[in-house]
User: Fold this.
Amino acid sequence: MQDVAHFIRYRKRQDRIFNVVGAICTLIGILTLVVLLGDLLIDGLPRINWQFLTSFPSRFAYRAGILSAIVGTICVMIVTMTAAVPLGVAAAVYLEEYAPRNRLTTIIEINIANLAGVPSIIYGLMALGLIGLCAWLEAVVRDGTGWQITLNPGRSILTAGITLGLLVLPIVIVTTREALRAIPNAIREASYAAGATKWQVIRHHLLPYSMGGIATGTIIAMSRAIGETAPLITIGALTFIGFLPPSPISSSPPFINFDWLGSQFTVLPIQMFNWVSRPTEDFHRNAAATGLVLIVFTLTMNAVAIVVRYRLRRKLKW
Amino acid sequence: MSQATAERRFPRVRPRRDTTAGARKRRDLREKGIGLLLFLAGASSILVTAAIVFVLVYESIEFFRHVSIVEFFTETRWTPQFANPKYGILPLVCGTVMTTVVALAVALPIGTTVAIYLSEFAPHRLREVVKPALELLSAVPTVVYGYFALQFVMPALKYVIPGLPTFNMLSAGIVMGLMIIPYVSSLSEDAMRSVPMLLREGSYALGGNKFITAINVVVPSSLSGIGAAYILGISRAIGETMIVAIAAGMQPNLTLNPTEPAATMTAYIVQVSLGDLPHGSIGYQSIFATGFLLFCMTLAFNVGGHILRRKFHQAY
Amino acid sequence: MRTGSSRRLELATLALVASLACAAGCGRDLHANSVPVTPIVFIDGLDGLTGIVAIDGSSTVYPVTEAVAEEYQIATRGSVRVTVGISGTGGGFKKFARGEIDITNASRPILHQEMAACKKNGIKYIELPVCFDALTVAVHPENDWVDTITVEELKKIWEPAAEGKITRWSQVRKGWPDEEIILYGAGTDSGTFDYFTEAIVGEAKASRGDFTASEDDNTLVQGIEGNKYALGYLPFAYYESNKNRLKALKIDQGDGNGVLPTVENVINGSYAPLARPLFIYVSEKSVQRPEVEKIVEFYLANAPALATEVNYIPLPDDAYPLVLKRLKDRTTGTAFGGETDVGASIKELLDRTPVE
Assistant:
């Protein structure tokens, strides 16, 4: 009996020790987040003021600001969303509703899982290579036929948006699929019973119900895209940009133009990288402030995603 | 009833136009068209992979016309910018491997412990708070982590290891590890939670405490999920760019000493992209050759993880 | 899966950050109390300009061009858009020859093959020197055995054949201590590296590989001042800002006279071969656009002030009018004949007639 009591005490102590160890490890994780945010706040918060948010970059740290970076980020995000969401939702709908269970479908699914794990810089290399291909095609056509065609988007907002859109495509596809899967089959069957075609079922019933999931997925994808630096550096977004892209609204017909798509640009993470790489302390403060703005954007988007999902889920009636 | 009331109560129903043969044909055509469009959307992911592989392979072939494969894999110096350039990928691979090893040394133990703790030990309310907080950790942009590594972790390390160079693999690796913790812990924990309670109860019935149950029952049962989490972490660490570009320096260095600066494959690509990129030059092609090797490495790990999951998956 | 409490956590964090941000909204402006404001020379004709000016090229000239671009945009109140890239001197010339950019920054004169490329595409260029760049060879302040070093000795230390072989001071010159030399130098993809190797070893990018290379001036300065037996080369600008931590060596070109790297010595041409002029090349077609012509004028008018601000060395005062005249006369061609002429003084170069 002595042995058993001893044994039990030993085992209980083991549990207690591991409780402590586990708590410490968890604390390490949480503490990292706290220290990171704290460091950014201490270094960067004093630097954030109206002047910082509305000035262009400068060689003087005190004069520098992130206006062109913020506008660039917003423009690139618009293109990313336009590229990723329709394509992603369409692909997810296909995979969930239309695709037969054959090898091709399995290949597509493995492919998507793979793309999600490809390092982001590879997407940048792909874009760079395709830009080179476009330039080469232009030259070939020009030398061969004398026509000057402009295929080459070069270092523009359009290229960046499409690259990032392809990067976050797997995220959109996966979350949309989950949203579609969550809809009970009864809804589909009821629709079919009422005589709807496949597309009518999807358009009138499935898509509205999965809106919440799609919206959440989109926002999560955007918050991932906003922080991506490597692919954009590879495309070449690190030039001195002291101006904004041309406004899409012009005062003469047709009142909306797309010139801004071809404009050069810079984005928040690249501006932060630029400033972190400089040796002086005052640029590091600027970098911290940029990091704060970036995190606020990211957190806001994540928070909005959660709120959207919560509210749309409440409206579901099944 | 009067005519007016009748019309109000029983409104005339228009003949159903869309049951006519013509309408049916149009609808079928539209359905087929939409089906085709959606199929193209689904297949677009294949196009993306094809584009990636095409670009990487094409430029790498160009590169290997000038540089022998033997030199690429056995030469110990990576000096493409020199007058007599050397193209040995070993320093870059070494940089990637070393930073990954440091990162995994941080992430795997801590991540697994956190997963076990949250799934087996922690009270339910705590788990509800901690899990999203950890997921926040993975939502932070990597540039911010790079800043953190350079501005906070590196000075702290310098305090502990005097004489530490400003750029070193240790600070980059540690921060990378901290970033990967949520990947490892989240997936491992999901895997552990899917182990049915029955198995645990069997262990408790035999006199096991939580720790013994976790180590001897839960972990082995969820090994495929934990393995998948590990592989995901490795894959993420190999492909990480910004943290190492900012904190580990960009000088290729063939060394096993993590306190020295080094360049990883990803950092080299960034370094070249920041500067001169004349199309068609061998410097330009070298980033594609490096990228191709990187792609193959992550592909190998992803496929390996997939196979591992299939092989060891226990269905309950 | 995110649940209600995670939502609360997210919102709480967000609220915290947002409120702190608002509170610091009236944050103090980090005023430039310690940064002297460079007086900018304004030229006429800056109103009513519009358009885009595309500049690219050398990372060495970049700081000056960046300063000019920034001030020019402020002066034109943002109506002219200027982009400045860093593709390197070679990369810049390639784009320039294709007509993709208006102005290219160059840390060396245009070479034969680049001249041929321009000719093939019908691009005529105006060569304009804008300032000097110099490199300093520095050692630890307590280094008492060397004051002057010859180019030959530097070559002996830095050429590719020295790798692994020349590792001690005593191997370079008799009488120097028998200690290991610790070498520091510029990053291998920088213009500084190209320039140093060209000037000292005789061939660009030809260098030994076993030295600590870094683009970060702090690393170089810390490295050299951290070891008594260290030797390194770094841009003059970085040396100037850290004068009290390093000791500069006089460079002897072989005539027995060691010359110290100072602003005067660079301007009068006696500090050689580690001083070189930096150029901008303007496309003759582009300069017909008023916004391009004005930015080049602005550049030349402000080059003395801005070059000094970024720690480069301006041309002698009487050189700038000559350069401006070249612009006004639209004198195309190069005075260097497609080669880099290490060592000629700027006066000579400006006196020569540029040849296409």
